[in-house]
Amino acid sequence: MTLYEINAQIGAFLEENTDPETGEVLNLDVLADLELERSVKLESYALAVKNFDAEISSIKAEEDNLKARRERIKTTRERIYQELLGELRGEKMSTARVQISYRKTQSTEVLDIALLPEKYLIPQPPKPDKTAIKAAIKAGENVSGAVVRDNVSMIIK
């Protein structure tokens, strides 16, 4: 039974088993069974959230390990590539397993962005600095267009 169905049953039970004159709830043992079933369902939901949190953490740790490994390999590759480039000094090389040749390429380097005409700049949408906004509001400054909201965060351990 879903949590929604359990809550609906509890609501229906209370409507049918409450004395209208005294407000006393009749058949408390049935209500206790429904409350227990609801409690078990809520505990299952909380345990599922904990499992998902653990899995997310595990995947994140593996992503971090893979990223670090990729960066190490990339650094090693670049070091070896530069050494090969320096040793060959533009000389072609060919073996049964590898062939090295060269081609001319071009790249654009910006020396001073302030000197570039506007038509060569890509406009970026403004991005709010939420940390600075929060600090300003907490310091008593009025920041129009922003507020600091108090939220409730559930912690499951």
Structural descriptors:
157 residues; two-stranded antiparallel ribbon; 54% helix; 3% strand
Helical fraction: 40-55%
Instruction: State the helix count.
Output: 3
Placed side by side, the strands forming the largest sheet appear as: 1-2
Biggest pleated-sheet summary: 2 strands, antiparallel
The poorly predicted ranges are: none
- Report strand %: under 5%
Distance between the termini: 25 Å
**What is the global morphology?**
elongated
How does the helix and strand content classify structurally?
Answer: mainly alpha
Order of helices and strands: HHEEH
Radius of gyration: 33 Å
SS elements, strand count: 2
Give average pLDDT, whole number.
93
Summarize this, please?
The protein has helices spanning 3-16, 28-88, 130-138, and strands spanning 93-94, 99-100. The protein has 157 residues and is mainly alpha-helical.
Please characterize this protein's 3D structure.
Helix 1 packs antiparallel against helix 2 (28-88). With 157 residues, this protein is mostly helical. The protein has helices at residues 3-16, 28-88, 130-138, and strands at 93-94, 99-100. It is elongated. The chain has a two-stranded antiparallel sheet. A hairpin with a 4-residue loop joins strand 1 and strand 2. The mean pLDDT is 93. The protein has three helices and two strands, in the order ααββα.
